[in-house]
Amino acid sequence: MLERENVALKTQADPKTMQAIEKELQQEHEQLLLERRQEMAALKEKINRLDTLVTELQQQQQQQQQQQQQQHGFLARLFGCSCSGPNEDSTTEAGVAAALPAAAAGAAAAAAAAAAAAAAAA
C-alpha cells in the first residue's frame, strides 16, 4: 500500500523537486553521520581518560598498601611483636625456662650472703 502511494507521489512530483529533496536528505544523512563520528571520538577520548585515571588510582592504592606494609613491618620490628603469629616463640620460652633455675640459685645465694652478713654484724 505504501509502495503504491510512493509511486503515485513520484509520478505527481516534479523530478527536479525530487532530486532537490534527495540531495537535501543525503546532506542531512552525511551531517548526522559526521556528528555521530564526532560523538564516538569524544566518547573514546573520555574512555581513555577514565582508563588512565583508573590506572593511576590503582597505582596509588598499591603504593599506599606497600607503605602501610612497610610501616607495619617497621613497627613490628621496633616493638618486637609479630602480629601474624604468636607473641612468644619456643626459643623465648626455652630461654625463660633456662634462666629461671639460674635466677633462683642466684637469689638463694644472695639471700644466704645477706643472712651471713647479718649474722656477722650481730
Structural overview:
- Keywords: Coiled coil.
- This protein is an all-alpha fold and 122 residues long.
- The chain has a domain at 15-80.
- Helices cover 89% and strands 0% of the residues.
- The protein has 3 helices and no strands.
- It has helices at residues 2-12, 15-79, 90-121.
- The radius of gyration is 46 Å and the shape is rod-shaped.
Any chance you could write out the topology, listing elements then pairs?
Elements lengths: L1 H11 L2 H65 L10 H32 L1
Keywords: Coiled coil
Low-confidence stretches: none
Number of helix segments?
3
- Total strands: the figure is 0
Separation of the first and last Cα atoms: 138 Å
| Structural class designation | mainly alpha
pLDDT averaged over residues: 79
Portion of residues in beta strands equals under 5%
Q: How big is the Rg?
A: 46 Å
Coarse morphology: rod-shaped
Sketch the topology as an H/E string, one letter per element. HHH
Helix-residue proportion: over 70%
- Main sheet makeup: none
Coiled coil: 18-70
Keywords: Coiled coil
Question: Could you list some keywords that capture this structure?
Answer:
single chain, 122 residues, mainly alpha, 3 helices, 89% helix, 0% strand
